[in-house]
Design goal:
Length: 325
């Protein structure tokens, strides 16, 4: 099992140990405000290989590079004016920008899977301090086995990857609970490659421009990681349930009861008062709990499509998609 250091009680030791392990070319699980990340030195090809190995992740799926400040970002990518505006408004925060990599950038091609762009993000929370001390960008996908549900707590990471990892930093439950929103600006058009923890409506409000969604979100693999089946629990998933069937777990929203829920293996409410932020923060943990209840199927009640509901529904649709394994 991995060592877990609590960043709230031992922040200095957490940073010291994390930097020591990262310098050895080994990944460390770190808390970001979105989900826990499996972080490694983005300039070290062996360290990046270890990430792909630990996750069982296909190597054509590039990693997000995490930076601690704008100077570090600008050493590796060039900003167009709109992307710069987004970075200034929303960083540190749950937004990843796809930007051209500078020729002099030391981020290794394995991190970008050979693309000429980098996915780059300045995370909020303790992970940013780790990056600042380490001094190089950290490549970090979510700290879960490829295709599984993303971790929002140190315990989730320990249960999934603990036997392969040396160190997990524990900062408590992730505040946002959904991965970052991914935006690529192309010829002045803002393209949404992945809905996530930053409501795309906020981006539209700031820029006065439309955020363009892919025509067929499930089918186009714009961000190569957006394979249809993802975030998959062990149980099957049924969306927009209007009743609970035998052997099902129920994850509902907004305090809305469903007929038959007395027979459910477990009943969880993402947000009894209908708050989408709270629902996002609870989503992955509740999926894991429903899975652990022994249900054959997890039934989800309806979640509203507005605001963060877009990203929540995206994750639910991927969890419900036909599985290739
Ligand atoms: O919130 C998050 O984004 C978390 C935390 C740890 O920061 N990270 C995360 O990483 O969700 P991951 O690897 O699970 O998802 C990264 C996504 C993938 O869909 C990948 O294909 C896309 O970003 N991506 C990375 N670099 C890209 C690039 N150059 N062009 C297009 N898509 C890219
Ligand atoms: Mg992931």
């Amino acid at each position: 099992m991995a060592e877990i250091i609590d960043t709230r009680t031992e922040p200095d030791r957490a940073i010291g140990q994390a930097c020591a392990v990262l310098s050895q070319g080994e990944p460390v699980a770190i808390p970001t405000e979105t989900v826990y990340g499996l972080a490694a030195d983005a300039t070290n090809p062996d360290a990046i290989s270890r990430i792909y190995e630990m996750k069982g992740r296909p190597r054509f799926n590039p990693l997000i590079c995490h930076v601690s400040d704008m100077a570090m970002a600008e050493a590796h990518v060039t900003f167009d004016p709109i992307s710069r505006r987004l970075a200034e408004a929303f960083w540190p925060g749950p937004l990843t920008l796809i930007l051209p990599q500078r020729p002099e950038s030391t981020v290794h091609a394995l991190a970008s899977a050979g693309l000429d762009t980098l996915g780059i993000r300045m995370p909020d929370g303790f992970s940013r301090q780790v990056i600042a001390h380490f001094g190089h960008p950290l490549a970090a996908p979510s700290a879960n086995t490829s295709g599984r549900i993303s971790p929002t707590s140190a315990a989730h990471v320990q249960a999934d990857l603990g036997s392969k990892l040396k160190l997990i930093l524990d900062a408590g439950p992730a505040e946002i609970g959904l991965e970052s929103t991914i935006i690529k600006v192309e010829d002045g058009t803002l393209r949404l490659l992945r809905p996530g923890g930053l409501d795309a409506g906020e981006i539209e409000k700031l820029t006065g421009r439309e955020v363009v969604r892919p025509e067929n979100a499930g089918a186009t693999i714009e961000a190569p990681g957006m394979l249809a089946s993802h975030y998959a629990p062990g149980a099957a998933v049924r969306l927009n349930a209007e009743e609970v069937r035998a052997g099902e777990a129920l994850i509902r929203f907004g305090g809305r009861s469903l007929p038959g829920e007395g027979e459910a293996t477990i009943v969880l409410d993402l947000s009894p008062h209908g708050n989408l932020r709270e629902a996002a923060a609870n989503l992955f943990d509740y999926m894991k709990r429903a899975d652990a209840s022994g249900a054959r199927t997890i039934a989800f009640g309806r979640v509203p499509e507005e605001g963060l509901g877009e990203a929540i529904i995206d994750r639910l649709q991927r969890a419900a998609a036909p599985r290739s394994r």
